[in-house]
Design goal:
about 270 residues, mainly alpha, 15 helices, globular
């Protein structure tokens, strides 16, 4: 017999939120933790219902109390980030993320490590951050590998180890994390933590750019400007800048606009 929650979940993922909720809500009311978690996600995002963070919290907590570790993570996340009419509560966020982590959920380990690294919801504790990142990495969470790489790159709470950072970025990039592709590309371009590899860096920037990673788009433009002195490269730099600037954060836009203008002016003769 088909699992009605699994079928409704797929319907929800496919965008038929209202119809999925007609199946999921009775199941959630009857105590199904997976259905409760999805109903919570619907209220958090306004999918098929009006957005309501208090209703999201209620449904996530019901599911969490039934042992659903994803709901524990979701509950911790909305306490960490807040939402319309729903205040941030970092201390509660730590409690629920820890419960999810203790249940073996890798993404919660990475998220909790991040809170310890930056002192969100409690004091900074870099040793705890490293431990949660290591545990999250062992549980298969690529973001934990990314975060751990930054600790080793910066020597933050651990001895600086650029080779280790590069290997961790490579691990997360191999798992498909575009941010890690960009960070690995930057280390390869600079020859940091290993041999310089301009071609390898370009390939990584291109992959991450294709997935919408803004900093990789920026770094790809600069790499082409500095290393590929051809008319084709000049045309691509123009296209990259045209893609980059409308998406730039306000605090970066003026600098990136000036840099793009500089690159395009210099490359006019190619």
């Amino acid at each position: 017999m088909a699992d009605p929650v699994a079928a409704a979940r797929q319907m929800f993922v496919n965008g038929d939120h209202a119809q999925a909720l007609t199946i999921l809500r009775p199941l959630a009311e009857a105590g199904d933790a997976s259905a409760q978690n999805i109903v919570g996600a619907a209220y958090e995002n306004g999918y098929g219902v009006n957005m309501d963070f208090h209703q999201a919290q209620l449904w996530f907590e019901r599911a969490a109390q039934h042992g659903n570790r994803l709901a524990m993570m979701n509950l911790g996340r909305i306490y960490r980030d807040g939402g319309p009419g729903f205040p941030v509560d970092g201390a509660r966020a730590r409690v629920w993320l820890r419960r999810s982590a203790d249940a073996g959920y890798g993404p919660a380990m990475g998220a909790l490590g991040r809170m310890f690294e930056y002192g969100v919801g409690g004091p900074v504790d870099l040793e705890q951050a490293r431990t949660f990142y290591e545990n999250g990495r062992s549980a298969g969470d690529e973001w934990s590998s990314e975060y751990l790489a930054h600790l080793y790159r910066l020597g933050s709470g651990v001895p600086e180890d650029l080779a280790r950072a590069r290997a961790l970025f490579a691990e997360a990039a191999a798992a498909g994390l575009s941010q890690s592709m960009g960070n690995l590309g930057r280390m390869m371009e600079q020859g940091s933590g290993g041999a310089q590899d301009i071609d390898g860096a370009e390939a990584l920037y291109r992959r991450a750019h294709g997935e919408g990673h803004l900093m990789s788009t920026y770094n790809l433009a600069w790499l082409l400007y500095e290393n590929r002195h051809t008319a084709e490269a000049a045309a691509e730099v123009r296209a990259l800048c045209a893609d980059l600037l409308p998406r730039a954060e306000p605090e970066r836009h003026s600098d990136w606009f000036a840099e793009c203008a500089q690159m395009q002016k210099t490359m006019l003769g190619y």
